[in-house]
Amino acid sequence: MITAMLFAGGSGVRMESSDLPKQFLEVGGKPIIIHTMEHFSKHPLVDAIVVACKSDWIGYLKDLIVRFNVQKVRAIVPGGRNGFDSIHNGVVATAEFSLSGDDLILICDGVRPMLSEKLITDCINHTRIHKTAVPVTPSIDSLLYSTDGETCGKSYARNTMFITQAPQGYTMERILWAHQEAYKRGILNPISSSELFIELGEKVHLFQGERFNIKVTTPEDLITLRAQFYYENYKNCSSCNDGVLRRFSRVFMCKGRKRERTGGTARNGVYRFSEHRRGRLRRSCGSSHRRQGCYLVRFRYR
């Protein structure tokens, strides 16, 4: 049995959103946590979903689950004082219906809406083999160590540094042992499950993550998410969610002085582009933009 355990018990202080926890901010007409849950709900290998949610928002989350018809949700439990307590509550809830110690649990932030099916599958496969599986991406930045944020006397070799992601996969036997040991040893606030294992003196297996798998934590992350979300939706010329544009953009390459191209379909038919003057492509509706021979053409409803 494979269970996705999402923790969404935070208030989003770094997001600077005082009224609405970050997991409930909407992108593309859906709250971020619903996007995240849907990736697991639609995955053919995932059997159940457990969510640890901020306690006074559980009712709202239940309404969203019904509204967006999210399947496979087995339990929603209150979050804790910190991320570790929220994960612990979710792990305990999962253990109540888990069938054996070899069952898998995929622990994931509720604010990773750009998960891919491949990443979830890779996590499952690596966990089956190694009993722990943590997606990482190599650091592309140089890292400096500082205790005060103002001075530095130590750096790290970039090729030894990796950025952890989620979901992180564990067998139920391993994660239950880790949580029991944590409370015995007074380890009460590890940043992630992988760091918990490391603090307990255990090794975890790493596998290649995905750079687009961002965790939405800050306002800058939200901007990145929205940009990527709209790109993914419009790159194949799909319908616009807000009903303003049928086609968001399409790029045309012109090398000659005059080139005739058939544009894409919109509600009122097929557009034909035939005029090429001084690097600009013109037509009767919408607009075009010049950038080294590439033309971004916007289609509008009529």
State the shape: globular
Helix residue percentage: 25-40%
Number of strands: 19
Order of helices and strands: EEEHEHEHEHEEEEEHHEHEEEEEEE
Strand content: 25-35%
Mean pLDDT across every amino acid position: 81
Radius of gyration: 23 Å
Description:
The chain is α+β, with helices and mostly antiparallel strands and 302 residues long. Helices cover 28% and strands 25% of the residues. The protein is built from seven helices and 19 strands. The strands form six sheets. Strands 1, 4, 5, 6, 7, 10, 11 and 12 form an eight-stranded mixed beta sheet that branches. The protein has a three-stranded antiparallel beta sheet with strand order 13-19-18, with no helix packed on it. Strand 14 and strand 15 (269-273) form a beta hairpin. The longest helix has 16 residues, at 219-234. The chain is globular. The N and C termini lie far apart (51 Å).
Structural topology:
Elements: E1 2-8, E2 26-27, E3 30-31, H1 32-41, E4 48-53, H2 58-67, E5 73-78, H3 83-95, E6 104-109, H4 117-130, E7 132-138, E8 143-145, E9 154-156, E10 162-164, E11 168-171, H5 172-185, H6 193-199, E12 206-208, H7 219-234, E13 251-253, E14 261-266, E15 269-273, E16 275-277, E17 280-282, E18 290-291, E19 294-296
Parallel strand pairs: 1-4, 1-6, 4-5, 7-12
Antiparallel strand pairs: 2-3, 6-11, 7-10, 7-11, 8-9, 13-19, 14-15, 16-17, 18-19
Helix pairs in contact: 3-5
